[in-house]
Amino acid sequence: MRGAEPPRDDGPGDRPDVPAPGRGDPGSASSPGGERPGHERSGASMQYVRGMSQPAKSSRTPAPSDAPESAAGGRAAAQRLKMRRELAAAAMELFATKGYEATTVDEIAAAAGVARRTFFRHFRSKEEAIFPDHDDTLIRAEAVLNAAPAHEHPLDTVCRGIKEVMKMYAARPEISVSRYKLTREVPTLREAEIASVARYERLFTRYLLGHFDEHAHDDDANDDPLLAEVAASAVVTAHNHVLRRWLRAGGQGDVEAQLDHAFSIVRKTFGTGIGAGRDASPHQAPLSTASVEGEVLVTVARVDAPLHQVMRTIEQALKERS
Predict the structure, then answer these.
(1) Do residues 210 and 54 make contact, with C-beta atoms less than 8 angstroms apart?
(2) Reduced to 3 states, what is the DSSP secondary structure of residue 21?
(3) CA–CA separation, 137 and 196 (whole Å)
(4) Hey, is 280 helix, strand or coil?
């Protein structure tokens, strides 16, 4: 328990000064509460562009600064996270002993040794207090997207980004397991975590949408937003499935290996057609080829080649023949 400033009631007028942590920010995947009923996955072939590394637009990533300012900012961020975790620990203990409904913000602040106003500088409500790391984790996930190498498949980049969420849970397994049990018992907390999941999903959807081949879906009705959202949701769902299973097992087992297996399934289902509509590299065979020999047209295609691409290859060969 901290002995910093004595708890005091600053009154309801202090809440408008609280900076909102951003529950409505781009996309969230992290959580056991992220399960969503009724989502059917389509086997549609999704075409991505290799090397179109477009950073996700966001104002959260700070601009480069000089070393002293950077060091000071790092210390401030560490102190902020430390305070948020102390408040979260106090909240979880009180929720477990008194019950969620019976616990007040004043009691949480008092248990952490700070004032009510300090609590509202870090959280907008008591249900947010048990999720202290999501804001920082979202920034780290976004940094992974922004720094993706040009040769990496966009879905692989998204899978690496969401791994930051799993690292957050795996870093403190006992707390993560306790929080999981608590969210199973308190519907309000479960809803709060489901809301955080949407932030990651929006982030990944926006990133994938910037990597579709502009020629790959000429014949569709602007389906790129749908395909991007489905792919992002698949990554998030795979992550949450593995995370919930790990938490139900008490935080035991090789969760990273389980996650990689789940991602391989997503990649196989949604990751075909990379580089469609672009010239194949010297080391990459085209997905389909066609040639005319006399009155016979011969087509050779990989089994994972999208049908529309095979048809485009045939049409091109016929045009050249005529």
Answers:
(1) yes
(2) coil
(3) 11
(4) coil
> 3-class DSSP state for residue 299?
strand
CB atoms within 10 A of CB 146: 17
Mean pLDDT of 23-50: 44
Q: Is 306 exposed, middle or buried (0-12, 13-18, 19+ CB in 10 A)?
A: buried
* CA pair distance 251, 242, nearest whole angstrom: 11
Per-residue pLDDT of 69-86, as tens digits, reads 567 777 888 888 889 889
How far is Cα 101 from Cα 89, in angstroms, rounded to an integer?
Answer: 17
Quick one: tokens of 28? 């969230």
- Assigned token pair, 205: 């959807």
CA distances from 236 to 79, 204, 242 (A): 30, 9, 10
Residues 6+ apart with CB under 8 A from 24: 199
- Reading the block at residue 169, the tokens are 């849970």
For the beta carbon of residue 245, count every other beta carbon within 10 angstroms: 14
Q: What Cα–Cα distance (Å) separates residue 250 from each residue in 89, 193, 304? A: 19, 19, 40
What pLDDT sits at residue 242? 96
User: What is d(CA 321, CA 295) in angstroms, rounded to the nearest whole number?
Assistant: 10
**pLDDT tens-digit map of 147-168:** 999 888 899 999 999 999 999 9
Alpha helices by DSSP H, listed for the chain, are: 67-98, 105-112, 116-122, 134-146, 154-171, 173-185, 187-209, 224-248, 255-270, 307-321
Residue 320 phi/psi, 5° resolution? -65, -35
Nearest to 91 by CA among 192, 20, 195, 240: 192
Secondary element (H or E) of residue 272: none
CA distances (Å), 197 to each of 90, 130, 162, 193, 237, in order?
A: 24, 15, 11, 6, 10
Q: Are 113 and 3 in contact (CB under 8 A)?
A: yes
Enter the tokens of residue 294. 């006399």
The secondary structure element, H or E, covering residue 289 is: strand 288-293
Q: How large is the angle between the packed helices 105-112 and 67-98, nearest 10 degrees?
A: 120
pTM above 0.70, yes or no: no
